[in-house]
Write a structure and sequence with these properties.
By secondary structure, the chain is α/β, with parallel strands linked by helices. It has seven helices and 15 strands. It has two domains: 3-119, 3-Layer(aba) Sandwich (Rossmann fold), CATH 3.40.50; 139-244, Beta Barrel (OB fold (Dihydrolipoamide Acetyltransferase, E2P)), CATH 2.40.50.1020. The strands form four sheets. It has a five-stranded parallel beta sheet, sandwiched between helices. The protein is elongated, with a radius of gyration of 21 Å.
């Protein structure tokens, strides 16, 4: 009997990609697509859904987790699979008894493993059984309808633009992220990134020069990025000095 699957992701290209891969896998029927948690709950309440493939970060950073908790309250609760670009929510997914946690970008082979787990009578719900690539920090960004994966060492700094969008300035160019700067900071802190201003997060390893500026502040010259310097606001000076060792 085919497995009835619901795809939930706020990005149309991500939903389309997942749906196309499922077309190549036997015994899978995509019964619906939703762009947020509320739509997913309404759909699953009125349709026969065996499994929900659910993004974590949608309108809010953890909307997928909130939606999953509601879906579990249904009398015919579907099995849960998280599909996301962020590894740090794996433990929370485990707490919600997720069957799997799949990192973007997807592959047919990886999703076939997920389907195999879904069809088991007692699928594993241990974070150690999730994707073995959860360890390294990666930053997914959409560009020209493609999901690019940026490594921390590629990123010079991250800034908020006038529209409060996070812009990742990298060796490959500038990319806009849907994540707020605060969440990006939490994700990249372990990779040597430091907040230097309410609108800037800098890769300390990329700092080439520290230029004293007005009111005991600094301007940072970034190695490999001649176009823009990074400010260090007075509020962040003490933490910056400690990180640099001055």
């Amino acid at each position: 009997m085919p497995l009835n699957v619901l795809i939930v992701d706020d990005e149309f290209p991500a939903r389309q990609e997942l749906s196309c891969i499922f077309e190549e896998i036997t015994n899978i029927t995509v019964v619906g697509e939703c762009k947020n948690g509320e739509e997913a709950y309404q759909f699953a309440s009125t349709h026969e859904v065996d499994a929900v493939f659910l993004d974590v970060h949608m309108r809010t950073p953890e909307e997928g987790l909130t939606a999953a908790a509601k879906l579990k309250q249904l009398s015919h609760s579907p099995k849960l699979v998280f599909t996301t670009g962020f590894s740090e929510f794996a433990v929370k997914a485990f707490e919600l008894n997720a069957v799997d946690y799949v990192l973007k970008p997807y592959s047919k082979e990886r999703l076939e493993l997920t389907i195999e787990r879904l069809t088991q009578e007692d699928p594993p719900v241990n974070p150690l059984s999730f994707d073995k690539t959860l360890g390294p920090v990666r930053m997914p960004v959409w560009h020209n309808n493609r999901l690019l994966i940026l490594l921390p060492e590629e990123i010079f700094f991250v800034k908020s633009d006038q529209k409060r969008k996070a812009v990742l300035c990298t060796e490959r160019g500038d990319f806009i992220s849907n994540m707020p700067l605060k969440l990006i900071q939490r994700r990249l802190e372990s990779s040597g990134f430091l907040r230097t201003h309410k609108s800037y997060l800098v890769n300390i390893s990329k700092v080439r020069e520290i230029v004293p500026w007005f009111n005991n502040t600094y301007v940072l010259v970034i190695d490999g990025c001649p176009v823009e310097d990074v400010p260090v606001a007075k509020h962040y000076i003490k933490e910056f000095n400690q990180a640099i060792g001055i």
